[in-house]
Each structure stands twice: as structure tokens, then as C-alpha cells.
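for the writeup, i need someone to sanity check this before i put it in the appendix. the sequnce is what the collaborator sent (i think, or maybe the updated version? ugh). structure was predicted straight from it, no edits. if anything looks off just tell me and ill rerun, i have time this weekend
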Amino acid sequence: MLYLDSSALVKKYWVEPGTDKVLTLLNSEEEVASSMLTLAEIESAFGRLFREGRLDKDQLSRQRAHLAEDWEAMKIVNLDEKVIAELSKLVSRLPLQTGDAVHLASALLIAPLAEELLFCSADASLLRSASAEGFETWSPLAPN
């Protein structure tokens, strides 16, 4: 199973450094998981791109439709009391920002459902914390 945070998954919908690697990775795996927070973060990114004139209305609608279709096929960890309880433990021992703590807590909660879980992010600090928690990690920004 792949766990993608928003910094990795957004690259599927907006071409930027690492997009090609994310697309290749997503084509190689069946199960993809993420946090409900990812939806909010990607929608926020779409809104920013639209306000900045980097997406027009049609592009915005298409990207939202692609995200909604993909979202239906993904395993989603809801932002609930279990995530907050796990987050509370994590922030006591790791230097995590709020969103990063939500992603790492979500990955820890869904990991038992997978034989293996690859934690994917473009955030080097979050990847270090995920590695400290025992996850194999992957960055779309890492050199080949």
C-alpha cells in the first residue's frame, strides 16, 4: 500500500518537479491511502492556483473531477479521535507541524491493513519522522 500526503498526491494534478515520478509510482501500485486532510489541502491548492490565474474555470473543474474520481478509489483515514490520539503521542517525541502529524498518525493507523506501507511525501522533514516511526519512505523529489 502507498500512503501519499498532499505534497506527493498534488503532483498528480498539477505539473511540478516530481510529477513524473508520482505518476509512475501510482501506476505501479493498486492500493493508495491518504488522510481526509489531503482532500482539504489539495482543494486549497486548486483554489490558490485558480485565484493566481494558473488554472482557468474549465481546468479547475477537470482537476476537481479527477480528484473526486481518484478519491473514491482510495482508502481514506478520517480525521477523528483515533487520529488525534495517535497525533498526541507523535508530537511528544517528534518535531512535527500539525498537518504532518495528521498524515503520520493516519499512516500509522492504516498500516495494519497492509502487508507493507510505503510513506510518500515531498516533505523531507516529514519523511525523516516517518522513517523514525519505522516506515519505508519515498520522495518524488529524490534524485534517481
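The chain has a mean pLDDT of 96. The two ends are 22 Å apart (CA to CA).
thx in advance!!
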